[in-house]
Amino acid sequence: MYYASEQMFKRLFIYCAAAFTCSIFIAVILLDTKYVDIRVKEERPIVDSIFSVINKQAAQAPIDQDLLHYWSGQFGYELELLSIQNTQDLELDLAQLTQDGSVIELISGWTQDKVTAYYLRNEQILKMSKMHIDKQAYLLYWQSLLVTILVVLALFVYCYVHMHKKYIKKLLNAYETYGQGKLSLRVSTQMPAPYSVLASHFNTMATKIENLLEEHQHMLNGISHDLKTPLARLRFALDMTRSCTSTEEYQETIQFMDEDLDALDELLDDWFLYVGLNAARREPKVQTCRLDKMLHKIVSRSAPIYSNIKAVSQITPDIVVGADKKLLSRAVENLVNNACKFASQTIRVSTHLDNDYVCIVVEDDGAGIPEDKRAAVLKPFLRLDSSRNVPGIGLGLSIVASILNSHNGKLNICDSDLGGAKITLMLPINCEAELATSDACAL
Where does it localize (predicted)? Predict the structure, then answer.
């Protein structure tokens, strides 16, 4: 955003400089032509009068240098008598001089004007020239020049502001419409910077808010649905205790109630963990974790719970990775538990290095996850039809995805050669894959 604003101000500076330069050229071209015409009209009566006087004097006596010097002192013009042959070096239109009998030229300078008049007299040309300063005319000229420059600049500023006004109005209308509840609104980014950057940030923000609200709604629906089942069982068990006729029946009912409380505890634990991971972006407490020890311990602790499942470990020794050991352990444990729940007979846990990632792979021989449902299983409280009879609330993979997101990792779901699902947890390599001398990740 800062870069886009900087670019906009650079362009504005360039445009203003160009507009200022153009305004000067326009003012000079327009005013100089008009100024020269006015000054020529002012000088013509003067030089005509001088020529009349000199011409009248020349009727009585020939024109010589002394006479020209005398009249130069009287009128302030430098007088010079030239032959037609001597005018070839001058930028003089002889045809116009022959036709009109006189030509007056004025060259406007920054501080003074040079006035030159040519009069045809017999076979000679009388040249009159002087450097002229008219303070009043120059004051008027500079005032007109300044007004013209300001008008051109004002026109440029108006057009520039009007062009940007429509982009600002477009963004404001989008913000107001979005604030009124139209959360699906997105703004076109086909605008110049920085408005395209603002539109892009608005679209990103709107998408995140819409996803959060949708996720919030799913979460409320999921929590309300999954709380009802154990609460209903608890109420039923509580009612059953009133009709117990023996200690054994009473203890069995209490056991059922205890299991329902464990289910509630698991639900709340998963829900608080998921909310904590997604409430704010926090940096994980990265430590050097030795994967072989961590994974062997998780498999040896989780797999025995499922007596009919065989766990196969193909864990490469001596691989280390930088990660938050508690979060990484929770993610792998969720994957292993999910695999055990959906497997028919076998799960497999393996590790390997893949370019810039350390990969932890968990596979099972169950029904697998259809390709068109692999994005859905990562959403909270959304469960596939094949998993309706499996215990859980649908937060396992969502928690794994959130943990990976906090570690800048990836989660890949595909088919396993065992016949079921293959889920790969990919963590970026931020420490060398060598033997860790410490047991920082021993659980």
Answer: Cell membrane
